[in-house]
Design brief:
- This protein is α/β, with parallel strands linked by helices and about 375 residues long.
- Among the domains are: about 100 residues, 2-Layer Sandwich (Dihydrodipicolinate Reductase, domain 2); about 70 residues.
- The protein is about 30% helix and about 25% strand.
- The longest helix is centred in the middle third of the chain and has 18 residues.
- The protein is globular.
- About 5% of the residues have low confidence.
- This is RNA 3'-terminal phosphate cyclase.
- It comes from Macaca fascicularis (Crab-eating macaque).
């Protein structure tokens, strides 16, 4: 089963948890033993330079990285060494991917969406259907919000030719976490390539502004109203429908507030802007930040927003045929995912400036991939 060991430098490019997520997922899928060295996933606290040299040391300190690695190990009965907090090197030896019920718990507000990102490609190539119980933060900083996963990632990634169900049992926020999501999916024989190059025009803008726990409902209304005002300045001819929501007490753990706004186009492209409340930041500012992020994602002429780019790379690499997506500026996360998909899966990517007339004045790119046509050996 096992091929030659793949050696990965965990300090290059994005140099964080994403290298671990992409490389262990591909290692698991392809049955290749893996060693990742020089891991610097802990990331020094940004903006605090007073820590002197200490803040420069980056190691595997995040519980969510550990729970992601442990989840992949469990999905395929693999062997994982060096996976403890503070470690800078891991080795992973995968075995056969199996379906069934799997649980991963970050024990913190670590993101359930990142757990989903790492496990989903693997369970698509399992021997039987899977049910993933993911626990942690559903609406957490530095990661997609679960609403993004359901409203944007899901409908687009399903174009690769599979379906999944995502059941949000409980929402969890920073710092406690305590959220739970159940993902159910059946395996596939192969993934279809996708072609997302026609942007169309924006037809709908909608979203949700939420409060949970002790935060007053007025905060949700204020976030929504500020976001609508901000979007109206640029897009005048569309009704902007942002619903303020009070999360039910029994479906949310802890206190939190935030907003996600989605723009949908005539060709089915989806773009988002989102923001989470923090202590001391007023509601208007949270709403405006999400609106400005959405507007920025609509300016570049791509068919996916900056957060979807990198999440599609592994699927493109595995698909049977040529996939194309049109994007705005290619993010470091995307460049990192491409690098490891080429190194480990041997997929071939070409990134080039879009040659369409309407993109001439914009920073628009085409990411093209000749996928490896991964076939599920169990089906």
């Amino acid at each position: 089963m096992a091929g030659p060991r793949v050696e990965v430098d965990g300090s290059i490019m994005e140099g964080g948890g994403q290298i671990l997520r992409v490389s262990t997922a591909l290692s698991c899928l392809l049955g290749l033993p893996l060693r990742v060295q020089k891991i610097r996933a802990g990331r020094s606290t940004p903006g605090l330079s007073s820590g002197g040299w200490k803040s420069k040391i980056k190691v595997l300190t995040r519980p969510q990285h550990l729970s992601g690695l442990e989840m992949i190990r469990d999905l395929c009965d693999g062997r994982l060494e060096g996976a403890e907090i503070g470690s800078t090197e891991i080795t992973f030896t995968p075995e056969k991917i199996k379906g069934g019920i799997h649980t991963a718990d970050t024990k913190t507000a670590g993101s359930v969406c990142l757990l989903m990102q790492v496990s989903m490609p693997c369970v698509l190539f399992a021997a039987s259907p899977s049910e993933l119980h993911l626990k942690g933060g559903t609406n957490a900083e530095m990661a997609p919000q679960i609403d993004y996963t359901v409203m944007v990632f899901k409908p687009i990634v399903e174009k690769f030719g599979f379906r999944f169900n995502c059941d949000i049992k409980t929402r969890g926020y920073y710092p406690k976490g305590g959220g739970e999501v159940i993902v159910r999916m059946s395996p596939v024989k192969q993934l279809n390539p996708i072609n997302l190059t026609d942007r169309g025009c924006v037809t709908k803008i909608y979203g949700r502004a939420f409060v949970a726990g002790v935060l007053p409902f007025k905060v949700a209304k204020d976030m929504a109203a500020a976001a609508v005002r901000c979007i109206r300045k640029e897009i005048r001819d569309l009704y902007v429908n942002i619903q303020p929501v009070q999360e039910p007490k029994d479906q949310a753990f802890g206190n939190g507030n935030g907003i996600i706004i989605i723009a949908e186009t005539s060709t089915g492209c989806l773009f988002a802007g989102s923001s989470l409340g923090k202590r001391g930041v007023n509601a208007d500012k949270v709403g405006i930040e999400a609106a400005e992020m959405l507007l920025a994602n609509l300016r570049h002429g791509g068919t996916v927003d900056e957060y979807l780019q990198d999440q599609l790379i592994v699927f493109m690499a595995l698909a049977n045929g040529v996939s194309r997506i049109k994007t705005g500026p290619v993010t470091l996360h995307t460049q990192t995912a491409i690098h490891f998909a080429e190194q480990i899966a041997k997929a071939k990517f070409i990134v080039k400036k879009s040659e369409d007339e309407e993109d001439a004045s914009k920073d628009t790119y085409i990411i093209e991939c000749q996928g490896i046509g991964m076939t599920n050996p169990n089906l």
